[in-house]
Design goal:
The chain is built from seven helices and eight strands, in the order αββββββββαααααα. With about 375 residues, the chain is α+β, with helices and mostly antiparallel strands. The protein folds into two domains: about 230 residues, no CATH class; about 130 residues, Macroglobulin (MG2) domain (Immunoglobulin-like), CATH 2.60.40. The strands form two sheets. A four-stranded antiparallel β-sheet has the order 1-2-3-6, with no helix packed on it. The longest helix has about 35 residues.
């Protein structure tokens, strides 16, 4: 009874996984092309970054580069201005001011300047550890710019007050520290590796328990590969979950895609668990040579392996494309940066592909052996 339920669960899970993949493919191919960019940054910063509307006309994304800026080191204050519909703005006149959050004193100002496009950056060296307020002013269209360019108005006591400036103003916060970036990165790495390690320990415990169980056939090296494939798929899913928020500024669809990829990999791992425990469930096979498998099991394993192989190869090729050429749907004209999480994720998926290919060859060998065994042709 339990094995019949496992068989039915594998069938239902396979159909759900295929349906999820098709829905995601249709969305990204046909629907996402009508969406606007949410900004022109490579990644959405978790720290020292923000985005909000200024009046009912503009939406501004802002962040620092590097995100974990340190005092007395050159950094860049980056802006990406779109209109309310998410389209780029052109030939706008802007001013940037930096205030100390502690004293409310203006410590630097970049005068009114015309920028050809709403994506621009301001170099700046923060003098000390502490909190700062960055004020962006965008001059109204109906104001003559001839007397404004390169001028600096008096500082404001209320930073978001636009009285008398004929402009729209937005205030962003920045926190400058020496070691927060290193600590935060260490926590993220530890979290990712910790989750993967917990999954690995759980799978090893299940593998070892089966190995010591006298009621099941001896565990072979191919069973070890099955557990490894499961670990690699779930590990890659964890990495996708860790990095998806960073891609929201470039395109919202990128975050949705990474979440979908993670969900599919988790679903694939769950189906592999069901497949492992449904192996050789036929009593006539279970009591015989362990190389013998049923036709139903082979068809399920073949479909599942093709899903894993095709999906993993797609993600690997898409990543290679994105780091060589500008990614699909990207408003930027340059490729994605290569980072440690990308290298980790693709390394897991490359090993996953190798493991799946080995398993497919082994399962085919088992099926052909079973088919040739005359007493099992109809099993």
């Amino acid at each position: 009874m339990v094995f019949m339920m496992l068989k039915n669960n594998v069938k239902c899970s396979t159909k759900a996984l295929v349906l999820t993949f098709l829905v995601a493919f249709v969305y990204f191919t046909f629907l996402s092309s009508s969406q606007f960019a949410q900004g022109h940054f490579d990644h959405l910063a978790h720290y020292n970054g923000a985005g909000f509307g200024i009046s009912d006309k503009y939406y501004v994304n802002q962040q620092l580069e590097p995100a974990y800026a340190k005092p007395n080191e050159l950094s860049k204050i980056m802006f990406s201005i779109q209109d309310k519909d998410g389209r780029d703005v052109h030939n706008v006149i802007v001013m940037v001011e930096i205030y100390s959050a502690k004293t409310n004193e203006r410590i630097s100002v970049f005068p009114w300047t015309r920028v050809e496009i709403g994506d621009f950056e301001v170099p700046f060296v923060f003098p000390k550890i502490g909190n700062y307020e960055i004020v962006l002013s965008v001059l109204n269209d109906d104001v003559s710019s001839s007397q404004i360019i390169n001028t600096v108005p008096p500082p404001h006591t209320i930073l978001n007050d636009n009285t008398g400036c004929h402009c729209e103003r937005g205030v962003f916060n920045a926190s400058i520290s020496e070691n927060f970036g290193s600590i935060f990165s260490l926590v993220i790495f530890a979290s990712v590796f910790g989750v993967v390690s917990v999954i690995g320990v759980g799978l090893f415990w299940g593998f070892w328990s089966r190995r010591k169980d006298k009621s099941v056939d001896p565990i072979s090296r191919y069973d070890f590969i099955k557990y490894s494939v499961l670990l690699l798929a779930l590990g890659a899913a964890v990495v996708h979950l860790a990095v998806y928020p960073e891609h929201g500024a470039l395109r919202l669809e990128y975050s949705v895609f990474l979440l979908s990829a993670s969900a599919i990999q988790i679903g694939y791992g769950i189906m592999y668990i069901l497949l492992i425990f449904s192996d050789d469930s036929d009593p006539r096979i279970k009591k015989s040579n362990k190389l013998l498998i049923s036709r139903q099991y082979y068809k399920k394993s073949l479909m599942l392996n093709w899903i894993g192989l095709g999906g993993s190869l797609f993600l690997i090729l898409l990543y290679l494309y994105a780091v060589i050429l500008p990614p699909p749907l990207s408003p930027n004209t340059h490729p994605e940066d290569v980072d440690i999480f990308g290298i980790l994720d693709k390394s897991l998926e490359v090993i996953l592909v190798v493991g799946i290919v080995v398993l497919m060859m082994y399962e085919r060998k088992r099926y052909l052996y079973s088919f040739k065994a005359s007493s099992y042709k109809n099993v």
